[in-house]
């Protein structure tokens, strides 16, 4: 089954067959419009894949959408979260309060949730201000780009690792660790139905945000992790035959491997353009300068400050991958951090 992206007002809960249902849950103020929350049938109550944004309208859409499909939110057995972002994990705590459901996510994202819970607001502001300064943003721009401190989602009761089966009696729903968008992002392979819940990892039209925070870290390489994870999803199709993708946004689509290959090609082209850009510049560039020169979905001057901050995170991830591949280097002993091509 395939459904094109439409405004949230035109979305409806759907019976996808085979004991799987989808419920569109609104994301207030977001151009994405909604999260597709999935329910998977089991003899002991449905298990949700993601839960949606923590907002009264979202709760009404989730609980009402389940009811329209003949399901009761109070009977939900568990919520398995593809990653900790608020449009996926936000309502998991409220579902737990209503039904006693367990909450599960990958152990790497569970660690981030604990860190977010312990982090004080003043620490968040200082962290972001210094991160933006080291990236090359001027003080005024840094203040505007900081954004609000995110509210941590509910703590998970269960932590998953790659290959674990979700507690779903009568079905085989296996966690596939696909880091990149977050360190603990997982896809979920419904092995008894040739379907894969892709979260934000593989989307049919857009690509997920892959960034580094702090921007100047040199001990991680999330974009390389993401590209490797795309290959993992493609390998599942090679082993099991074509898999239908049930993503968290946009629409359901067939042949997840074909789309994964398109996304990989997109990033390889972006990396090559960035390498060429640095090669043409005689002087090393800051992360902020690089971000301003890259191509986004709108001109840099038209991006709001918070989106400039996200763009800088994505620029940093691409710079880090080029550095790891030996195509560029970071200049030692300078603040803010700067990068240059090795052959310049």
From TrEMBL:
Return the Pfam families for the record.
Answer: Lactamase_B (PF00753)
Q: Where do the Metallo-beta-lactamase domain residues begin and end?
A: 34-249
Q: Which domain of life is it from?
A: Bacteria
Record's Gene3D superfamilies? Ribonuclease Z/Hydroxyacylglutathione hydrolase-like, Winged helix-like DNA-binding domain superfamily/Winged helix DNA-binding domain
Region entry Disordered: which residue ranges?
138-162
Query: Which PANTHER family does the protein's record reference?
Result: ENDORIBONUCLEASE LACTB2, METALLO-BETA-LACTAMASE SUPERFAMILY POTEIN
Protein name per Swiss-Prot or TrEMBL: MBL fold metallo-hydrolase
Q: What is the lineage of its organism?
A: Bacteria, Bacillati, Actinomycetota, Actinomycetes, Streptosporangiales
């Amino acid at each position: 089954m395939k459904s094109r992206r439409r405004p949230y007002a035109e979305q409806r809960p759907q019976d996808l067959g085979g004991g799987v249902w989808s419920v569109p849950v609104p994301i207030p103020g977001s151009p994405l419009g909604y999260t597709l929350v999935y329910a998977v049938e089991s003899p002991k109550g449905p298990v949700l894949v993601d839960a949606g944004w923590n907002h009264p309208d979202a709760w009404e859409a989730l609980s009402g959408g389940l009811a329209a499909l003949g399901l009761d939110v109070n009977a939900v057995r568990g919520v398995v979260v593809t990653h900790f972002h608020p449009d996926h994990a936000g309502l998991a705590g409220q579902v737990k309060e209503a039904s006693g459901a367990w909450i599960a996510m990958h152990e790497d994202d569970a660690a981030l949730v604990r860190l977010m819970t312990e982090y004080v607001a003043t620490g968040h502001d200082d962290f972001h201000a210094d991160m933006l300064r080291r990236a090359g943003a001027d003080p005024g721009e840094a203040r505007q780009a900081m954004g609000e401190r995110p509210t941590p989602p509910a703590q998970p009761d269960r932590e998953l690792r790659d290959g674990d089966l979700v507690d779903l009696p009568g079905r085989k729903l296996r966690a596939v660790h696909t880091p990149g968008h977050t360190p603990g992002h997982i896809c979920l392979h419904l092995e008894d139905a040739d379907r894969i819940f892709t979260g934000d990892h593989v989307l049919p039209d857009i690509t997920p945000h892959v960034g580094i925070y702090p921007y100047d870290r040199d001990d991680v390489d999330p974009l390389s992790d993401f590209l490797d994870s795309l290959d993992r999803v493609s390998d599942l199709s090679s082993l099991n035959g074509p898999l239908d993708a049930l993503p968290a946004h946009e629409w359901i689509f067939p042949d997840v491997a074909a789309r994964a290959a398109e996304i990989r090609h997109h990033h390889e082209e972006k990396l090559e353009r960035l390498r060429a850009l640095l090669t043409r510049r005689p002087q090393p560039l800051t992360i902020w300068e690089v971000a301003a020169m890259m191509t986004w979905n709108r001109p840099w001057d038209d991006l709001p400050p918070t989106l400039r901050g996200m763009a800088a995170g994505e620029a940093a991830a691409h710079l880090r991958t080029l550095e790891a591949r030996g195509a560029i280097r970071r200049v030692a002993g300078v603040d803010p951090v700067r990068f240059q091509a090795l052959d310049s």
